[in-house]
Predict the 3D structure of the following.
Amino acid sequence: MRRAAVAVAAGAMAVSLAACGSAKESGDKTDSTGSAKKGDDIKVGLLLPENATARYEKFDRVLIEKKVKELTDGKGKVEYANAKQDASTQNQQVDAMVTNKVDVLIVDAVDSKAIAGSVKKAKDAGIPVVAYDRLAEGPIDAYTSFDNVTVGKTQGEALLKALGGKAKDGQIVMMNGSSTDPNAAQFKQGAHSVLDGKVKIGREYDTKEWKPENANSNMEGAISALGKDKIVGVYSANDGMAGGIITALKAAGIPDVPVTGQDAELAGVQRIVTGEQYMSVYKPYPQEADVAAEMAVALAQGKSLDSIAKDKVDSPTTKAIPSVLVPVVSLTKDNIKDTVIKDGIYTVNEICAGKYKAACDKIGLK
């Protein structure tokens, strides 16, 4: 299955939004209508959840910092912290950002529930909060991510396509993400909506902390329980876990089993080129990062989000959160050029380096 990427209008939107009335503070400007608003000299706190997944340091952080500078004529600053998959550390980082009096927070939560108290602390201090990539609980002001149920559906549909007639011949293993990540539950929901009734699910796991080594151990357990001749495919919720799963499959002598993924990590794309991994879900990070930056700058400057966020979503604690959901694309060896290369995520030389050159030549990736 191949989906066309749809450009998000907010990604190219000029930030020319009507200012809301706000208390005038030191450094604020007054526009022609006489209402006070903060200028471009703002501090944006950016909190990302971990650094084991390549996207956060390579894409999200860099893209958000770049967009904030662009939107503030180079005057806005981003204060950054990475929680390294520790929810307590992230709560401490929020406290530090509040103490440092940032003007707005962008938070990609390690644990969507555990962060709620810290989100409230920020709000109580007058600091608006943008939930990024994962819908954190607490009084969130805005949210941007991808349509996570659609991500799961995309993965499930791709796996069924890869299995073809084998879908009824054996069993699949489902390797879901962490139970503390609300996105993981939505990926799982989407995948089940496609897979249930069409293929037998022999074993299913919620993988602690999304760690590849935990996925590897889970897969070894599944192979032992089901038997290597009974497994016809694996649903993996992301590329990192797919790497651990494929290692376990190889060690057990199970060849040519389609494995899904997500995030279009370089290692995942290279496995797709060689045929070890069937697909990934490419999520256009530049669009998501641009929207997050636009939301954050607008909120810091006391402006409305009406022109940016056309949708509303509900969290378990907050209703009607202004939101932008970015479309996703099913990435296979057939559309690498039209996705990650076209968007400048990777070059052909990066993907086809060293031992991958022959496989790239074989599929015409030059």
